[in-house]
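pinned: reference chain
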Amino acid sequence: MRAILILLLAGTVASCTAGPPQPMGAAQVDKAQRLLGGKVAGPPMDCISTINANDMTWLDPSTVAFKRGSNLVYVSHFNGGCDNYNDRYALVTRQVTGQLCRGDIGQLVDPVAHYAAGSCVFGPFIPYRTPGTR
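pinned: its C-alpha coordinates
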Protein backbone atom coordinates (compact mmCIF):
# COMPACT_ATOMS: atom_id res chain seq x y z
CA MET A 1 0.00 0.00 0.00
CA ARG A 2 2.82 2.36 0.85
CA ALA A 3 4.43 1.72 -2.56
CA ILE A 4 1.19 2.68 -4.31
CA LEU A 5 1.00 5.93 -2.35
CA ILE A 6 4.62 6.73 -3.22
CA LEU A 7 3.92 6.08 -6.93
CA LEU A 8 0.84 8.30 -6.82
CA LEU A 9 2.77 11.05 -5.08
CA ALA A 10 5.63 10.78 -7.59
CA GLY A 11 3.15 11.02 -10.48
CA THR A 12 1.53 14.08 -8.93
CA VAL A 13 4.87 15.81 -8.40
CA ALA A 14 5.99 14.96 -11.96
CA SER A 15 2.77 16.39 -13.41
CA CYS A 16 3.33 19.65 -11.55
CA THR A 17 6.89 20.02 -12.82
CA ALA A 18 6.25 19.22 -16.49
CA GLY A 19 6.66 22.26 -18.67
CA PRO A 20 4.84 23.16 -21.87
CA PRO A 21 5.48 20.97 -24.92
CA GLN A 22 8.74 21.81 -26.62
CA PRO A 23 8.89 22.74 -30.31
CA MET A 24 9.73 19.91 -32.66
CA GLY A 25 13.44 19.15 -32.76
CA ALA A 26 15.39 18.22 -35.87
CA ALA A 27 14.85 14.47 -35.31
CA GLN A 28 11.08 14.97 -34.97
CA VAL A 29 10.92 17.13 -38.10
CA ASP A 30 12.91 14.48 -39.99
CA LYS A 31 10.54 11.73 -38.77
CA ALA A 32 7.47 13.72 -39.85
CA GLN A 33 9.05 14.48 -43.23
CA ARG A 34 9.83 10.80 -43.88
CA LEU A 35 6.29 9.78 -42.93
CA LEU A 36 4.38 12.58 -44.70
CA GLY A 37 6.76 13.59 -47.51
CA GLY A 38 5.06 13.56 -50.91
CA LYS A 39 1.59 13.15 -49.39
CA VAL A 40 -1.25 15.66 -49.60
CA ALA A 41 -3.59 16.48 -46.68
CA GLY A 42 -7.28 15.79 -47.13
CA PRO A 43 -10.30 17.06 -45.19
CA PRO A 44 -10.32 16.22 -41.44
CA MET A 45 -12.26 13.13 -40.37
CA ASP A 46 -14.04 12.50 -37.08
CA CYS A 47 -13.22 8.76 -36.86
CA ILE A 48 -10.89 6.13 -38.29
CA SER A 49 -11.14 2.34 -38.10
CA THR A 50 -9.41 0.65 -35.19
CA ILE A 51 -5.70 0.88 -35.66
CA ASN A 52 -2.86 -1.55 -35.04
CA ALA A 53 -0.68 -0.22 -32.23
CA ASN A 54 2.42 -1.05 -34.30
CA ASP A 55 1.29 1.46 -36.93
CA MET A 56 1.28 4.44 -34.52
CA THR A 57 4.14 6.95 -34.44
CA TRP A 58 4.58 9.90 -32.07
CA LEU A 59 5.55 12.96 -34.10
CA ASP A 60 5.81 15.20 -31.04
CA PRO A 61 4.26 15.26 -27.53
CA SER A 62 0.93 16.46 -28.91
CA THR A 63 0.75 14.69 -32.30
CA VAL A 64 0.47 11.06 -33.39
CA ALA A 65 0.35 9.48 -36.84
CA PHE A 66 -1.28 6.20 -37.86
CA LYS A 67 0.25 4.62 -40.96
CA ARG A 68 -2.05 2.63 -43.26
CA GLY A 69 0.21 1.12 -45.89
CA SER A 70 2.65 3.21 -47.88
CA ASN A 71 0.07 5.59 -49.37
CA LEU A 72 -2.04 6.73 -46.38
CA VAL A 73 -1.22 8.28 -43.00
CA TYR A 74 -3.72 9.75 -40.51
CA VAL A 75 -2.42 12.52 -38.24
CA SER A 76 -4.18 13.61 -35.04
CA HIS A 77 -3.21 16.53 -32.82
CA PHE A 78 -4.30 16.08 -29.21
CA ASN A 79 -6.57 18.77 -27.82
CA GLY A 80 -4.39 20.56 -25.28
CA GLY A 81 -1.40 18.27 -25.86
CA CYS A 82 -0.81 15.03 -24.02
CA ASP A 83 -0.25 15.45 -20.28
CA ASN A 84 3.06 13.98 -19.10
CA TYR A 85 4.08 12.55 -22.49
CA ASN A 86 7.20 10.42 -22.24
CA ASP A 87 8.64 7.88 -24.70
CA ARG A 88 8.53 5.13 -22.10
CA TYR A 89 4.74 5.22 -21.75
CA ALA A 90 2.25 3.25 -23.83
CA LEU A 91 -0.85 5.01 -25.18
CA VAL A 92 -3.91 2.92 -24.29
CA THR A 93 -7.32 3.52 -25.85
CA ARG A 94 -10.65 1.77 -25.42
CA GLN A 95 -12.80 1.50 -28.53
CA VAL A 96 -16.28 0.10 -28.16
CA THR A 97 -17.35 0.76 -31.75
CA GLY A 98 -14.21 -0.47 -33.52
CA GLN A 99 -13.28 3.12 -34.31
CA LEU A 100 -11.01 5.73 -32.82
CA CYS A 101 -12.79 9.08 -32.86
CA ARG A 102 -12.25 12.76 -32.18
CA GLY A 103 -12.81 13.33 -28.46
CA ASP A 104 -11.75 9.79 -27.46
CA ILE A 105 -9.37 9.72 -24.51
CA GLY A 106 -6.12 7.80 -24.49
CA GLN A 107 -4.24 7.09 -21.30
CA LEU A 108 -0.49 7.13 -20.96
CA VAL A 109 0.37 3.98 -19.01
CA ASP A 110 3.71 2.84 -17.67
CA PRO A 111 4.01 -0.70 -19.11
CA VAL A 112 6.27 -1.88 -16.29
CA ALA A 113 4.66 -0.38 -13.19
CA HIS A 114 1.11 -0.44 -14.69
CA TYR A 115 0.06 3.02 -13.53
CA ALA A 116 -1.67 5.75 -15.51
CA ALA A 117 0.64 8.72 -16.03
CA GLY A 118 -1.54 11.10 -18.02
CA SER A 119 -4.25 11.38 -20.62
CA CYS A 120 -4.72 12.64 -24.17
CA VAL A 121 -7.88 13.74 -26.03
CA PHE A 122 -7.77 13.00 -29.75
CA GLY A 123 -8.53 15.78 -32.20
CA PRO A 124 -9.73 15.25 -35.77
CA PHE A 125 -7.83 12.81 -37.98
CA ILE A 126 -6.25 14.39 -41.05
CA PRO A 127 -5.61 11.91 -43.88
CA TYR A 128 -2.39 12.37 -45.87
CA ARG A 129 -2.43 10.45 -49.16
CA THR A 130 0.05 9.94 -51.96
CA PRO A 131 -1.38 11.85 -54.94
CA GLY A 132 -3.26 9.61 -57.38
CA THR A 133 -4.22 6.98 -54.75
CA ARG A 134 -7.49 6.36 -53.00
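why pinned: The chain has a mean pLDDT of 79. The helical segments are 2-17, 26-36.
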